[in-house]
Design brief:
Blueprint: H1 2-16, H2 25-35, H3 56-61, H4 67-74, H5 88-99
Helix pairs in contact: 2-5, 4-5
The chain binds heme C.
Heme C (HEC) is lined by residues 32, 35-36, 38-40, 52-54, 59, 74, 78-82, 86, 94.
Length: 102
C-alpha cells in the first residue's frame, strides 16, 4: 500500500517536473502582469517594442538560463525597477513563469 502511494506521488512529481511543486508559474504570470509588464514584454508576443528592458521570452531562451539563479537575482531590485522588492516566493514564482516561455 505504502509502495503504491509512493509510486503515485513519484509519478505526479515527474509529471509536473522538478521545482514545479515549490514555485507556482501561474501566480508568477499574475505577478509579472502586475509588477513587470509596464517595462518588460512578459509573454511570447514577438512584436518589436521600443523598450529598454529585455522581453521575458528572450531571457528564458538564453543559453544557461536557470530559473533558480534568476529567482535569486530577482530578489535584489534592479536599477529602474519599482522600489518594492520581491519576496523569495514571488521571485521563485516569476522565475518559474519565465521558464515556461522557453
Ligand atoms: C520601471 C521599469 C521596469 C519594471 C517595472 C521592471 N523592470 Fe526589469 N528591467 C528594467 C530595465 C530598464 C532593465 C534593463 C536595465 C537594467 O538591468 O537595469 C531591466 C532588466 C531586468 C532583468 C535583467 C534582464 C537581462 O537582460 O538580463 C530581469 C531578469 C528583469 N528586469 C526582471 C524584471 C521582473 C521580474 C520585473 C517585475 C517584478 C521587472 N523586471 C520589472 C525595467 C523594469
Amino acid at each position: 500500500m505504502r509502495a503504491i502511494a509512493i509510486s503515485i506521488i513519484a509519478g505526479l512529481v515527474s509529471l509536473i517536473g522538478p521545482g514545479a511543486l515549490a514555485a507556482d508559474a501561474n501566480n508568477g504570470a499574475e505577478l509579472a502582469r502586475r509588477w513587470c509588464a509596464a517595462c518588460h514584454l512578459i509573454t511570447h508576443n514577438r512584436l518589436p517594442m521600443p523598450l529598454a528592458a529585455s522581453p521575458f521570452g528572450s531571457i528564458a531562451k538564453r543559453p544557461g538560463f536557470n530559473a533558480r539563479q534568476l529567482s535569486q537575482a530577482l530578489q535584489a531590485p534592479h536599477p529602474r525597477m519599482p522600489e518594492r522588492g520581491l519576496s523569495r516566493d514571488e521571485a521563485a514564482d516569476i522565475a518559474a513563469y519565465i521558464a515556461t516561455l522557453k
